[in-house]
């Protein structure tokens, strides 16, 4: 009996192996299934973790700031024009036909003015109430829009005769800078936040914290929109930050320490900080000035050729948040 069985078994085993189609398939297949599932789940889990990490990194401005190539630029002066040395410049814009519009600050001295570029002559002037301190200014649809310091209200003026057309309230904590791309307003309130503002309702559409290599850029002041970038004076520095309005990342620094230095060396001891950027899109001219500066400059910007020392832009262009006491 035993012999018969063993022969039978011997006979049967190889047969099973040789012909796996029916009898043997279920066994290995059953054994493999859990392992395949586990492997697939593990791969999926790893992929999920990787994508979550990537998403977090990509959405982080800090990470982008680290990744971004930053340009460092210097300037040359193309033209010098006279500028009212009593003008505490807080807003500046170019409106064609060699005409600038300017908003000035200081209590009892604040104004909106139309200024002839070449002579510096104030052609029209609208004084603000003595209790108000003028700040950023921009032009949209023939309306001049102005914000004021330590207030959340601002004013709209007729471009032609500077008569006041209305007032508005905005969502920023304070009023410092204004600019426009022709669709939205860009606003600054002295913090590191760049606002995008609806020009009809003056409600904030979006806010971006401005970063340079992982550092917040505080004290964003006068603004100008130039070729897809928002250029910002950084208060208490001789730097202009070129900001990508998409994500708030600083894509470049323009360093202008010589303008203020040379004015002081020429005896203008009472001048205040660099402030005011205007852009002539037609002729691609850039104008800058400062508070109580006797001059307004047309400048050209070009990359700095020498090596940029580590930490140089941080030292020159970043300051602690301004505190008004
Ligand atoms: C341009 O400015 C000049 C000088 O202020 C003025 O006489 C002229 O009417 C202006 N032209 C236009 C088109 O506004
Ligand atoms: C200013 O101009 C607007 C329209 O352009 C007009 O309605 C207004 O009366 C003018 N104001 C003054 C003071 O001339």
From TrEMBL:
The keyword Transmembrane helix appears for this protein: yes
Pfam families: Glu_cyclase_2
InterPro entries xrefs: QCT, Quino_amine_DH_bsu
Domain of life: Eukaryota
Transmembrane segments: 37-58
GO molecular function terms attached to this record: glutaminyl-peptide cyclotransferase activity
Biased composition (Basic residues): 7-18
Stretch list, region Disordered: 1-33
Record bears the keyword Cytoplasm: no
Keywords assigned by UniProt, alphabetized: Membrane, Transmembrane, Transmembrane helix
Name of this protein: Glutaminyl-peptide cyclotransferase
Species of origin: Pisum sativum (Garden pea)
